[in-house]
Amino acid sequence: RGRTTLFALGDGTVVAESAEDALASVKTNVHAGAILAACIHPDGRTLITGGDDGRICALNEEGGVKDIHNTSGKWVDHLIASLTSGVFVAGVGKQAIVFTSGKETHRFTY
Fold it and tell me: pTM of the full predicted structure?
């Protein structure tokens, strides 16, 4: 919405800074530990984050946080999304976990 810059921080929070109003920054607690990876969701409006708490979360435009997946404490250290295909992939340890429509569809070990 508008021109907003998102900063995923090492303390587990995301800060949204508005280009229109420098005083309107919003800080949202997302992870219990550090955010290790972040990318824009294929919907183009949601930020996906992965942390050292083992969670993959989605932060919507209104600041609401939704758990997408819990890796049982394994670090989520890579995230990538395709706006064209609607898929995003999380790197968790030695696995790549593929999500389509917000649900796990494939898991590859490398």
Answer: 0.90
